[in-house]
Amino acid sequence: MTAVDFRCDVLVIGSGAGGAPTAALLAEAGLDVIVAEEGPWVDQGSVVPFSLEQMERQYRSGGVTVALGLPSVAYTEGRCAGGGTEVNSGLYRRPPAEVIDRWRTKWRIDDLEPDDIDVLAREVEAELSVQTLPGPPSAPSERLRLGAERLGWRHDESPRWMTYPTKDARAGQRQSMTRTYLPRSTNAGARILTQCRVDRLELRGDRVESAAVTFDDGRRATIGCRAAIVCAGAIQSPALLQRSGIRRNIGNTLAVHPTVKLAARFGEELNVPDDVPVHQVKEFAPDLSFGGSASHPGLVALALLDQWDDFGNSVTAWREIAVYYAAITSEGRGRVISVPGLRDPIVTYHLTRRDRALLRAGLSRLALLLLEAGATDVFPSYRGAPRIRSTRDLAKIEQTFSANKASVMTVHLCSTVPMGEDRDRCGADSHGRIHGFRNLFVNDASLLPDAPGVNPQGSVMAVALRNARHFLAEEWTRV
Amino acid sequence: MKAPSPVVVGPTCEAILRSDLPLLPDERRTIVIEFVGRRLLDLPMHMRYGVALIAIVVDGVRRSMGDDRVIALSRRPLPLIGEYFRLIRSLSFAYVWETWPDTQPDGGIA
């Protein structure tokens, strides 16, 4: 294959919630920007949301990726232009002020003020048309709200990055990166190279000189740059840095929101296969929160699978069933380990005793909520789970649940290159520059020092804007 | 050992489907097995190695002791091997009900 070479001012690696805003701001400031994206460009609307086809086309490894441990934690990563913003539910949460405060003090992050982040969050919200539903919520979402209401539990509707041409929530159009920051980037002259994997960064002393890349068709190339900003997500960013020989405080502190699920059957048809509920229950936040999951019939079957002999008969009633989750703020941590010769990193995660107890409590309380909401049957997703028909059955969850028997999963991955001035713990400085390097940066979920207890992409985008502006003001002339 | 070969995984997947979803029509079962094989080829490399190793062991058990023994094994909560069976079942069931949503719990057509 013929080698192709590129040159640019700044190479942005990854085009998701971190990379796309970064590329847009840098290109609009007049820099020559190349965005290298490993996955393909897939137009919004060209695949059914949450379908197996979407997993095949837009997720890494078809959505089958696992953090090893006891239990293993299944996770997913977007692998397409726009990254996770293209495939997730689009639910948005502003970064909580107390979380920003905690990050600043505990991790010694300079210039991280809640008020400043709030301003950036509002900028993101305007760009992505973040808003609540224009009409009534879907029936599964309404059930969640109703159950919380009856129990007197705190709950609210999470806004989404959507536009709604009509009052019908299902007609909403996701304002993901391919509709917002990526077009802004290209309009300002940025070049987006899709299906282009960065194999490693070529380093000389304290500088990155170029990146060695391979396209899906086998072509290899080198991209020379004056600075590189790695925005490949909390798994791939540390993996790339490790492949390039940078390992200090990289990939050792993976944080996630582990979740367990259950399916709830109601006495009426309510399943909405291609959408997710927007209500979330925050009574026990930040330790524990409840929400709704995608519930197409394949996912209902999956939710029933761990106890198929008892629960399987209900799969024919999938139109009356919706899937819900309990998510925790975990004390556990994981690792991302790049092994020479292996294309993909090994990922591990360890749940603490407190995490396991929270998952049990979460599943039990979620079941209670759904009974209050009118569920006739609740099917927790773990081996040996009882069918829950009344509050009397809830004690059985306490007796039989073990995290090791459950299908634990997550979609929120953070903290593998934590930012801050404490060089003993942090992989990057307060604005994402890798410690010990002059022109190498990270700007994605990897920088968040821990999992924020809410959907993290709002935090990721606000921090990305902050760091990109700092790069333009303070770093660019020095690199 | 590049990947869990469909030749190795296929018979185990077929045995599980015949047991769990006995009325799933033959042509659908074939499609599901092909799908599972494709998906396993997409696994991250270290998972592919692990799955391939377990698949070879399980297929050896199946050849020497029969499908029933493999099915019994698949229902026990064993570390690693249990995860292999769970992976096959998860992919299979998700595909069956997404593709043919009105499939009966025994795999039969409504």
Description:
The complex is a heterodimer of chains A (479) and B (110). With 479 residues, chain A is an alpha+beta fold. Helix content of chain A is 27%, strand content 23%. In chain A, strands 1, 2, 9, 10, 11, 12 and 23 form a seven-stranded mixed β-sheet that branches. A four-stranded antiparallel β-sheet of chain A has the order 16-17-14-20, with helices on both faces. In chain A, strand 3 (65-67) and strand 4 (73-75) form a beta hairpin. Chain B has one domain (6-99). Chain B is mainly alpha-helical and 110 residues long. In chain B, helix 2 packs across helix 5 (81-99) and helix 3 (45-65) crosses helix 4 (67-74). The interface between A and B is medium-sized, with 32 and 28 residues.
Produce a short descriptive summary.
The complex is a heterodimer of chains A (479) and B (110). With 479 residues, chain A is of the alpha+beta class.
Layout of secondary structure:
The complex is a heterodimer of chains A (479) and B (110).
Chain A: E1 4-13, H1 19-28, E2 33-36, H2 52-58, E3 65-67, E4 73-75, H3 97-106, H4 114-127, E5 130-131, H5 139-151, E6 155-157, E7 160-163, E8 173-174, H6 181-187, E9 191-193, E10 196-204, E11 207-215, E12 220-230, H7 233-243, E13 255-256, E14 259-265, E15 279-281, E16 288-292, H8 297-305, H9 308-311, E17 321-328, E18 333-337, E19 346-350, H10 353-372, E20 377-380, H11 394-400, E21 409-410, E22 413-414, E23 440-442, H12 457-475
Parallel strand pairs in A: 1-2, 1-12, 2-9, 4-21, 12-23
Antiparallel strand pairs in A: 3-4, 5-7, 6-15, 7-8, 10-11, 11-12, 13-22, 14-17, 14-20, 16-17, 18-19
Helix pairs in contact in A: 1-6, 1-12, 3-4, 4-12, 5-10, 10-11
Chain B: H1 6-20, H2 26-41, H3 45-65, H4 67-74, H5 81-99
